[in-house]
Amino acid sequence: MSRVGVVGGGAWGTALAQVAASAGNEVLLWAREPEVVEGINTGGTNPIFLPGRQLHPAIRATDQLSNLDGAEHWLVVTPAQHMRSVLESAPAGDRTLILCSKGIEERSGRLLHDVARELHPQSHVAVLSGPTFAHEVADGLPTAVTLAADDEVSGERIRQLLGQPTFRIYHTDDLTGAEIGGAVKNVLAIACGVVDGRGLGQNARAALIARGFAEMTRFGLARGARRETLAGLSGLGDLVLTCSSTNSRNFSLGKGIGEGRSAAELMSDRRTVAEGAFTAPVLARIAEQEGIDMPIVAAVAALLEGSATAAQALEQLLSRPPRPEAH
Ligand SMILES: NC(=O)C1=CN([C@@H]2O[C@H](COP(=O)(O)OP(=O)(O)OC[C@H]3O[C@@H](n4cnc5c(N)ncnc54)[C@H](O)[C@@H]3O)[C@@H](O)[C@H]2O)C=CC1
Ligand SMILES: O=C(CO)COP(=O)(O)O
């Protein structure tokens, strides 16, 4: 039996702990919230972020990150903007960090695998991403993900550690592509939510998904991602999932904005993370600096910062001159 550490006790960290435990591992999960640590250790539940689900008995929780030191593999599942500070407080070690968060670091504009490599140069770094609503994974429903690792041996080891019939792991060495898909789709899901909130119809949503995917592809290719990764589970797959369901926090945020509520009010109401709200400004900024055409992302960033209303953002998108579809 191997020991797996999980860094972050939100919905996704908890669901991944369940995956790791079902695959036969002993799991130690680090959570910030004492209620989460106590809930897991005394009742086998995460009452705050994944309520109502009985967790595997092989999952234990701790409030001390250093207690995860004995685990060779860590699933890192903090919100993207907090990953740096959490990893800074982690003991150095020769381990594998499997990054499962979706976002771009706002202050540096860097992808998370770059940040993790900078902070833990002695560790292997991999990315796990895909269309994965936490509650479905925790319930053992069939799910497929992309695992990106630049080293074949550590990729194979992770597949052995976590893979199972209901958690299928496809692999690649394109960490950049896997991360960009997950980060960009959250911003596009906010846009799809706005479309839903304003009652603009399903044609408009499909158009947004397809043109949003064109933006994701432009950005990804400019950053060295491979087209097939962007068209795979971690890109297009996750985009379709997140843009089609109110189970998505990003989609719901957009829907609330589309219905006329302010982004600030909607964000202050929640304890859970809608990553797209943090990714949109930095993504729009990089796209503008690098001359990458991303009008939907720019519209979401403008909506979130309050410099455009939903009606103005829509008007701007609809009045763009027609162009060849391939561009
Ligand atoms: N929930 C889901 O279905 C999925 C989530 N993800 C990604 O996983 C990452 C974590 O999301 P969830 O587990 O859903 O979180 P969540 O929304 O369920 O919970 C919020 C998390 O943020 C943490 N947090 C709040 N303030 C913090 C701080 N100052 N420092 C460190 N941590 C802090 C909380 O401890 C908690 O773990 C995100 O990047 C998300 O995009 C990826 C796939 C699926
Ligand atoms: O990333 C997710 C599904 O793959 C979860 O999406 P939300 O963060 O929008 O809920």
From TrEMBL:
UniProt cross-references to InterPro entries, sorted A to Z: 6-PGluconate_DH-like_C_sf, 6PGD_dom2, G3P_DH_NAD-dep, G3P_DH_NAD-dep_C, G3P_DH_NAD-dep_N, NAD(P)-bd_dom_sf
Gene3D superfamilies: N-(1-d-carboxylethyl)-l-norvaline Dehydrogenase, domain 2, NAD(P)-binding Rossmann-like Domain
Binding site residues for substrate: 102, 249-250
Any single Gene Ontology cellular-component annotation: cytosol
Catalytic activity: sn-glycerol 3-phosphate + NAD(+) = dihydroxyacetone phosphate + NADH + H(+); sn-glycerol 3-phosphate + NADP(+) = dihydroxyacetone phosphate + NADPH + H(+)
Residues annotated to bind NAD(+): 8-13, 134, 249
The Glycerol-3-phosphate dehydrogenase NAD-dependent N-terminal domain, residue ranges: 4-152
Any GO molecular function: glycerol-3-phosphate dehydrogenase [NAD(P)+] activity
Binding site for sn-glycerol 3-phosphate: 102, 130, 132, 185, 238, 248-250
Keyword terms, alphabetized: Cytoplasm, Lipid biosynthesis, Lipid metabolism, NAD, NADP, Nucleotide-binding, Oxidoreductase, Phospholipid biosynthesis, Phospholipid metabolism
Name this polypeptide is given: Glycerol-3-phosphate dehydrogenase [NAD(P)+]
Organism: Sphingomonas piscis
Upper taxonomic lineage: Bacteria, Pseudomonadati, Pseudomonadota, Alphaproteobacteria, Sphingomonadales
